[in-house]
Structures are given as C-alpha cells and as structure tokens.
Design a protein that fits this description.
This protein is an alpha+beta fold. Helices cover 30% and strands 26% of the residues. The chain folds into two domains: 94 residues, D-amino Acid Aminotransferase, Chain A, domain 1; 146 residues, D-amino Acid Aminotransferase, subunit A, domain 2 (D-amino Acid Aminotransferase, Chain A, domain 2, Alpha-Beta Barrel).
Length: 262
C-alpha cells in the first residue's frame, strides 16, 4: 500500500479541520451508493466554491485500491475519500490533496447494527456546518466518545429545545407510523436515508416520545438499524419497521442497482 505524504503541522486540515470526506461501504469490490456519495461531495465543493479533485482520478484510485484489497465478494470494508487542504492558499487546487483508503468497519458501528443504543448529547455539542460533511469533526468524535462511556453505541445531537437532530455518524428518522420523518436543515442530508425512503414526510421536530414510538438510524456503514434504546430505556420497534429495515439492508448488500463495481 502506498504511504501518503506527510501533512504539515500547520496545514489548514490539521489546524482548522479544513476538508471534506465521504465514507462508502465496500462489499467485495462493490461500492454501495457510490454515485450518491460522489454527488454529495462535489455538490458541497461547488456550494462553497472550493477547488475539486478530478472525478476521473478519484474513481481510478478507488478502483486501484479495491483491486489491491483482495476482499472476498461479500467481505465488507469502509472506503474513505478525503479532500483536505494541505497548503495555505485555499483558492489553488495545488493546496488540496485527495486521499483514499480502505479500512475496517469500526467496532461500535458493527455493534450498532444489532440495534442502536442511543445516548442524548448536550445541545451545545453539534456539527459546526450541518449541511456539509466536513473533516471538522470535533462534535462527532467527542459525542461518540461520550455515548460509549455511557454504555451506548451512538450519540444523538439535540437542538436547544431538546428535540433530536441526528447521530454523530448516522441520520435519524422517526418511523411515524410507516411514513418516516426527519429533522430539518440542522441535520446532514443523508445518502442512506435518500435510498431508504425516496419519499419522507415533512420535516418535524423529533421529540423523545416520537422516537420512543419507533425510530431508526441510517448510515453508510451502519446501514439501517432500529433505535433499540434511548438513554438506557427500550424503544418500540414496530414489526413493519423491522421488516422494512431488513429488506433494505438485504438490497443494499445484494442489489447491484445500489452499487458500482470498482
């Protein structure tokens, strides 16, 4: 495996968390929801008027890594794509660097797949720019650590009024009697949610009672999972919700319409 060049200690990516990233589920050499992840990355770069990497070069490097990985057809890994600022002039493409790597799926993520144990986080801990999947990730790292220390496997960000927004690395949906609903613009638009529910109800305030009646978390590595516990107390898991989750996860892993062969 190629060793990436060192990043200067004063690089914007190091000192300021300046960068964007995507994490894609690999099943063998199939990249799940590949186009949707790339579209989100490039849309964010366009929105903030940052230089962007060559899409052809990105796909070529992903293909090279997948080919060298030696993964079995059903073996799962995380493919991490990062576009980080390593030079001071953010207007120059040369100040940015594209890094791709294949990694094991984190243990807490794998544990979450059996039914998430969510922990409510303090409302002053949340993403600094919820619309963008940036490498400025203090809230997510600190929030997941806090959740793990309290016996959970996901931390849930909250608004000032105590309603819920999203997980540290997952999107949050209330089942809402079979018409899933999510929080509004204070949560990251989720690639996995878009695949799970092509039509969702209008954005709502996700109150604790609404979540306890049935909720799920969605993420590229988490897949779709029920919220089994909230702050140590069990949540309802409607059978129809569990059936839909199981079918969706099966299709993510097996339906080639959801993936791209690298």
């Amino acid at each position: 495996m190629r060793r990436p060049a060192d990043v200067p200690f004063d690089a914007p990516a190091v000192e300021r968390g300046m960068g964007l990233f995507e994490t894609v589920l690999l099943v063998g050499r199939r990249a799940v929801l590949w186009m949707a992840h790339l579209d989100r990355l490039y849309a964010s770069l366009s929105r903030w008027e940052f230089p962007a990497p060559s899409r052809d070069a990105l796909e070529a490097e992903a293909t090279r890594l997948a080919g060298a990985s030696g993964l079995a057809p059903q073996e799962e890994r995380a493919l991490r794509i990062a576009w980080i600022a390593v030079g001071p002039d953010l207007e120059r493409t040369e100040s940015w660097r594209l890094d791709l790597s294949i990694r094991p799926i984190p243990s807490l993520t794998l544990r979450r797949r059996g039914g998430a144990h969510g922990i409510t986080l303090p409302h002053d801990l949340r993403r600094d720019t919820p619309s963008t999947k940036s490498t400025s990730y203090f809230a997510a790292v600190a929030g997941l650590r806090m959740a793990a220390r309290r016996g959970g496997d996901e931390g849930l960000f909250t608004a000032a009024d105590g309603t819920y927004l999203e997980g540290t690395s997952t999107a949050l949906l209330a089942w809402n009697g079979g018409r899933p609903v999510r929080a509004g613009t204070d949560a990251l638009a989720s690639v996995t949610v878009a695949a799970f529910a092509s039509e969702t109800g209008p954005c709502l305030s996700l109150s604790e009672p609404l979540l306890r009646d049935g909720a799920l978390l969605c993420g590229s590595l988490t897949l779709a999972v029920p919220l089994a516990y909230l702050d140590g107390k069990p949540c309802s898991q409607p059978p129809a919700m569990l059936e839909r989750i199981a079918e969706f996860n099966r299709r993510l892993r097996t339906d080639r319409a959801f993936s791209r062969e690298l």
